[in-house]
């Protein structure tokens, strides 16, 4: 009996761990020359599984892969996959939500504290020969008098909220799917998104990128924020209108930002965010640790293995079964 074929559309992680894991489970595995539709179709006509990192997987791609049963994302976000199109075709979409929870939460809190205590400005001042605690950076908050608003109380957002609360911050949480009891149990307050944005001294984003959340933080939302507030994003770049963010920072309304993700990656050389000293930039690195790097491709491959074996996997479009 011929074993199912699994196609890897693209992956920029080192090595062939995805293919090796699939083959060790007795599946056939091939990697496409690229994520282009013709390259995928050339190998994928018989594929029952697809592992994808950055390639755009549209309904048209799926139609060129008529035997496809599951798409597994190498990562947490899945906005490069047309999830509704997959559901309509009876194709499950799974992600890897647990491989870097600790890392992203830690990176987020590090960014919050770095900006809340003005560390980049202090560092620049000391290197330039200035030794003044008060003059280097006016933003140096006392946690107990500072509000952190966390948009999204999922795996990562809930850890960030609890961590900030443990440091003494007042924490507001906005998540329409969060349990009020769970939020209160974490010592936080559950509010609506507009109230969380307007009430934040520090705003951190932990929501999926969808049509509804794209540019969730736009010029209008930024205008409601407190003078000198800080925006932190380790989630998905397009949640923020970057031009509006840069304009608010240049105008002096926002005090600072810390960003690990961007609308286009790598961040464009001419991005206005690069020229602003009050913006802390990291290269989509919040997920990284040697342990996470090892786990990620294995988790993505195991989604396919377990799904084909009839086991439970983290499906993001459970209505796919209705179309079968």
UniProtKB/TrEMBL annotation:
PROSITE patterns: D_2_HYDROXYACID_DH_2 (PS00670), D_2_HYDROXYACID_DH_3 (PS00671)
Organism encoding this protein: Microbacterium oxydans
Gene Ontology molecular function terms on file: NAD binding; phosphoglycerate dehydrogenase activity; transcription corepressor activity
Family designation: Belongs to the D-isomer specific 2-hydroxyacid dehydrogenase family.
Keyword list, A-Z: NAD, Oxidoreductase
Superkingdom of origin: Bacteria
Domain D-isomer specific 2-hydroxyacid dehydrogenase NAD-binding: 109-286
Name of the protein in question: D-3-phosphoglycerate dehydrogenase
InterPro entries attached to this UniProt entry: CtBP, D-2-hydroxyacid_DH, D-isomer_2_OHA_DH_cat_dom, D-isomer_DH_CS, D-isomer_DH_NAD-bd, NAD(P)-bd_dom_sf
Assigned EC number: 1.1.1.95
Domain D-isomer specific 2-hydroxyacid dehydrogenase catalytic: 37-313
């Amino acid at each position: 009996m011929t074993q199912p074929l699994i196609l890897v559309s693209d992956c920029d992680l080192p090595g062939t761990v995805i293919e090796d894991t699939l083959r060790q489970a007795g599946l056939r595995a091939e990697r496409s020359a690229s994520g282009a539709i013709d390259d995928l179709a050339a190998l994928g006509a018989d594929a029952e599984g697809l592992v994808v990192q950055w390639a755009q997987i549209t309904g048209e791609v799926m139609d060129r892969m008529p035997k496809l049963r599951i798409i597994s994302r190498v990562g947490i976000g899945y906005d490069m996959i047309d999830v509704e199109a997959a559901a309509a075709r009876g194709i499950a979409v799974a992600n890897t939500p647990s491989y870097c929870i600790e890392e992203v939460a830690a990176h987020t809190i590090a960014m919050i504290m770095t900006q809340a205590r003005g560390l980049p400005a202090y560092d620049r001042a000391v290197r330039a020969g200035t030794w003044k605690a008060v003059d280097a950076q006016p933003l140096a908050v006392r946690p107990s008098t500072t509000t952190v608003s966390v948009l999204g109380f999922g795996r990562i957002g809930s850890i960030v909220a609890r961590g900030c609360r443990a440091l003494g911050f007042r924490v507001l949480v906005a998540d329409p799917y969060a349990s009020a009891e769970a939020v209160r149990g974490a010592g936080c307050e559950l509010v609506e998104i507009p109230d969380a944005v307007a009430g934040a001294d520090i705003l951190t984003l932990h929501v999926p990128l969808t049509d509804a959340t794209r540019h969730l933080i736009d010029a209008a939302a930024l205008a409601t924020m407190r003078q000198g507030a800080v925006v932190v994003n380790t989630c998905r770049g397009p949640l923020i209108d970057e031009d509006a963010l840069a304009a608010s920072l240049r105008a002096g309304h926002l005090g600072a930002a810390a960003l690990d993700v961007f609308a286009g990656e790598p961040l464009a050389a001419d991005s206005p965010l690069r020229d602003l000293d009050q913006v802390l930039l990291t290269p989509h690195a919040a997920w990284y640790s040697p342990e996470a790097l090892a786990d990620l491709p294995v988790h993505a491959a195991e989604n396919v293995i377990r799904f084909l074996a009839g086991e439970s996997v983290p499906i993001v479009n459970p209505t796919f079964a209705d179309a079968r």
